[in-house]
Amino acid sequence: MPVMKFTEAIRDAYAETMRAYPEVFLVGVGIIDPKAVFGTLDGLHKEFGDERVVEGPLAEQMLTGFTFSAATLGLRPVLIHHRVDFLPLTFDQIANHMGKWSYMFGAQQKVSCVVRGIVGRGWGNGPQHTQSLHGFSASIPGVKVVVPANAEDAKGLMVSAILDDEPVIYIDHRWLHSDAGEVPAGLFQIPIGKAHVMREGKDLTLVAVGPMVQESMVAAEKLAATGKSIEVINLRTVRPIDFDTIIASVEKTGHLVVADSDWPHFGVASAIINQVAQKAFGALKKAPSSVTWPNHPVPASYGIEPSYYPMAKQVIDAVSLVLSGETNGIHHVSKTEKSHSGTHSGPF
Amino acid sequence: MGDRNKNQDLIRSLYASALRIRMVEDAIAKEYPKGEMKTPIHLYTGEEAIAAGVCAALTKEDVVYAYYRSHGWYLAKGGNLNRMIDELFGKATGCSKGYGGSMHLIDLDVGFQGTTALVAGAMPHAVGAAFTMKYKKQHHVAISAFGDAATEEGLFQESLMFASLRKLPAIFICENNGLATNTLIQYRQPDYPIYKRAAGFGLESVQVDGNDAVAVYEAMNEAVIRAREGGGPTFIECLTYRVLEHCGPNSDVSLGFRTQEEVDAWKKRDPIVRLEQHIDAETKAQLIEQNQREIQVAFEGARRAPFPTSLIPEGYQCL
């Protein structure tokens, strides 16, 4: 199986679907830029031309409505934003149109499009270039939301998103862009709406999103050394959430921690703990817990920014608190032990 | 002689289209107080010449995206009357199966692609549809209809710019009735013609008397020919007047933002009356009778039709 970087996996998903389906095209601001959206479009403008790699003006809301209506007429557009922070500019077209069209006309039209946004981190990107917004996006009925955690996810979820007949918001973290892994060739798909059990365990269910998946895998490995058996679930799809897989796991383990790369309230962690409390309360031996971003924006200064992001250590602490009521298990996870590379060194 | 006949056929068809809209809107206004149509209605009364004139220049394959003042556009494009009245009654047999209501009408069989409740919301849809026509190497055109207030939104500039840049077969129809709900245009826009602002994006842009169906048709016909030949988009500002209140079946003169004298002055420019001058009495009587019959059938059918039984439309996948 070929090994490729996360960015190459996204590029592969675009290239394979565009070759197989003439109705697939890419659109966005700055996508014919020689840097090719962090390399995720390398060579595609040359291969597919202006007609299928469509440069747009800085008019994100229009491009979203444009994407939506092309989708209703049988095309499969992918709208690409260099920063997920540009999504709020477009929410009239996402919340009021893309997400409502199928329902409010009695499911007469397919809305087969993808909106991709990229989450920034590091190099002092500051509050307006680092939001995650997957919880925010997923709060609207009528759209699906996926967050890949590794190169395999990056390709499989993108191919599935492009071939889905409903609108899919695809949010990838640039912090993961240089990660590499085995990625199947061809039109490899990962089903939307299904979570992935990355590691089986019997003591605690650890549900993780995006970059927190790799932190959670490191944490589970460390905890295994102390005899704790942790089941790690890579959520993959934020809407619709695969509650069946999560609840089945909690019924086995009796304990739950959610590790989300987003704010604590109104998001994935809240939604999962809510549903588990309602549907599997009897299975829970302890109150669930979560590891999330602090409840405020991301600071720019590299003097403090690293302490904003929870890592494997915080996951271990949260798991230990749930399992034994204290955090004095393993404190010493060095920065280099996080499994992702996190090599972004700016400036853009 | 041939031209005169052709012209007479055109006027007859514009009159039939505009009259049908007027009679349907009048019937809705009359029945509305009974409370069976629990849906916000934005009646098209007085503005019929625009939808009639625009749609007369289109084929079934050309697509129209309109907004919440939707009934006239739906009917002019050939939308099914029974399905529309059913939708206003909230019935499962409605054009949107009861999930949309008056502001959200659709008839895909005739290229009526759906209407939005958001001002300017449909402008980019015509751009995307026009792009799709070009992508598929079809020679159809895409229309977006909206009011004067839509040109205050960012989507106005965003949509016109991209349509112009890519020379897309999109036609933008601005129904300038000088009102945003109950706020006059002079409180919202500088005293500078909308069509001239639109022209600033490097596309063809004209202003017509929106109460003159023939003038609307002629401007539209030129725009359609240009679009089909690859000449790019056109903006048509149609000057018109909303006779009734923003939402509902009544007059709004009592609110005090406009006078009865002003309404009466515009009624002298009624688009139906202007067309009627060229229609013989027999044709007029036949059309009125036919519309009355069809309207009666539509309302009787809507009353008998069942409500939807599920909160989820059949086939809806995105849960």
Q: Main sheet of chain B? A: 6 strands, parallel
Radius of gyration of chain B: 19 Å
Mean pLDDT of chain A: 94
Helical proportion of chain A, percent range: 25-40%
Helix content of chain B: 40-55%
* Largest sheet entry of chain A: 7 strands, mixed
Termini of chain B, distance in Å?
A: 61 Å
Rg of chain A, alpha carbons: 20 Å
Structure keywords:
heterodimer; A: 348 residues; alpha/beta; seven-stranded mixed β-sheet; five-stranded mixed β-sheet; globular; B: 319 residues; six-stranded parallel β-sheet; two-stranded antiparallel sheet; 11 helices; 8 strands
Provide a descriptive summary of the structure in words.
The complex is a heterodimer of chains A (348) and B (319). In chain A, helix 1 runs parallel beside helix 7 (151-163), helix 3 (60-72) packs parallel to helix 4 (91-98) and helix 9 (243-253) packs across helix 10 (268-279). Chain A is α/β, with parallel strands linked by helices. The radius of gyration of chain A is 20 Å and the shape is globular. Chain A has helices at 6-20, 44-52, 60-72, 91-98, 101-104, 134-138, 151-163, 211-224, 243-253, 268-279, 305-308, 312-324; strands spanning 3-5, 24-28, 53-55, 76-81, 114-119, 144-146, 168-173, 180-182, 196-199, 204-208, 230-234, 237-239, 256-259, 289-291. A 7-stranded mixed β-sheet of chain A has the order 3-2-4-5-7-6-12, with helices on both faces. In chain A, strand 2, helix 2 (44-52) and strand 3 form a beta-alpha-beta unit. In chain A, 35% of the residues lie in helices and 17% in strands. Chain B is built from 11 helices and 8 strands. Chain B is globular, with a radius of gyration of 19 Å. The model of chain B has no long low-confidence stretch (mean pLDDT 97). In chain B, helix 5 runs parallel beside helix 6 (154-165). In chain B, the strands form 2 sheets. Chain B has a 6-stranded parallel β-sheet with strand order 2-1-3-4-8-7, sandwiched between helices. Chain B has a two-stranded antiparallel ribbon with strand order 5-6. Chain B is of the alpha/beta class and 319 residues long. Chain B is 43% helix and 12% strand. The chains are: A alpha/beta (348), B alpha/beta (319). At the A-B interface, helix 3, helix 4 and helix 5 of A face strand 2, helix 5 and helix 6 of B.
